[in-house]
Amino acid sequence: MKFTKRFIAVIMAALLTAAFFTGCGGSSSNTSSDTKPAEASVKTINDGYLTVGMEIGYPPFESYADDGTTPIGLDVDLAKEIADRLGLEAKFINTSFDGILQGIGTNYDCAISAVTINEGRKKSCLFSDPYIDNYQSIVIKKGSKDKYESLNDLDGKSVALQKETTSDELLEDLTGKGTISCKKVAQEQVTTCFTQLANGEIDAVLCDSSVAEGYVSKDPDSYEIAFQDKTSPEQFGVAMAKSDTQLQTAVNEALAEIEKSGTLQDIRNKWFGAEN
C-alpha cells in the first residue's frame, strides 16, 4: 500500500502524542513514590548539608578518632542520623563551647554538643526535645581519701571544670551564695581537667555524669566517681536559632523516629554500655 507524505505525518504525530501522555503518566507515578519527606525541604546554611557546631573534645559525646581528623562520639552519630532523616548530610564545625550558641544560624544550623537545656539558654535559642538525661558528678583521683556526700563537700577544694558549662554555672551559684568556698580551675576543654586530676594538680573534677562515667570506664585505675547529684537531673538537646521553628519541627520529628526505631538506644549503648 502506498502512503502519502501527509498520511505518514498524521500517523507520526499521533504516535508522538501517545508517547508524550504515556511518559507524563509514568513520571507522575515515580514522583509520587520517590518524593522525599517534608523534612528534606528544610532550609539550611549549606544546601544539602546539616551543618553542626560542636566542641570536638568532650568524649564520649564528641572527640577525634585516632587519625586526628574524623569526629566520633554519641553526638556525632546522632547528628548523622538526624541529617539522614532530613535528606541531608551532616557536616561538622569544631568550635569552643564557650561561644557555641553564638554561632548558631550563621556558622552552622544547630549545635549538637552535650548542650544542656535550661531557661537561660532558651532566651537566645530554640531547643529540640531532649535526647539524654544527665547529672552533675564529682570525679576524684582513684585512692583519694576525700569523701563527698553532696556538692557542698567541694568546700575548701580545688575544682576543675569546663568553662561556660552547667558545671561552671552551678559552681558559680554555690560560691556566689556563699554556700561553699573553693578554688575554681576553669579550662577550655574537659580533657585538660582530667589530666590535671591524674597529675594531682587538683582535688576534683565537676562534670556531666555521662562524661564522668566515660572517663572512669576507660581508666578505672586513675579515676572514680565520688558523687552524682541525681536530685537535679539535666537534659541535653539540639540547639537552633531562635527564629528557626521549621528546623526545630523537623529535628523533633527526626528524633521521634530515631527513638521509636530503637536507633537512639543503640547509640547510647554503643557509647555508654548496654546498661544505660
How does this structure look, described?
Helix 2 packs across helix 7. The protein has helices at 5-34, 74-85, 119-122, 166-176, 190-198, 209-218, 245-260, 263-272; strands at residues 49-54, 63-64, 71-72, 89-94, 110-111, 125-127, 132-141, 158-162, 183-187, 204-208, 223-236, 239-241. Mean pLDDT is 86; it is low at 1-39. It is of the alpha/beta class. The protein has a 5-stranded mixed beta sheet. Strands 9-8-10-7-11 form a 5-stranded mixed beta sheet, with helices on both faces. A two-stranded antiparallel ribbon has the order 2-3. The protein starts with a helix and ends with a helix. Strand 2 and strand 3 form a beta hairpin.
Condensed summary:
With 276 residues, the protein is α/β, with parallel strands linked by helices. The protein contains eight helices and twelve strands. 37% of the residues lie in helices and 23% in strands.
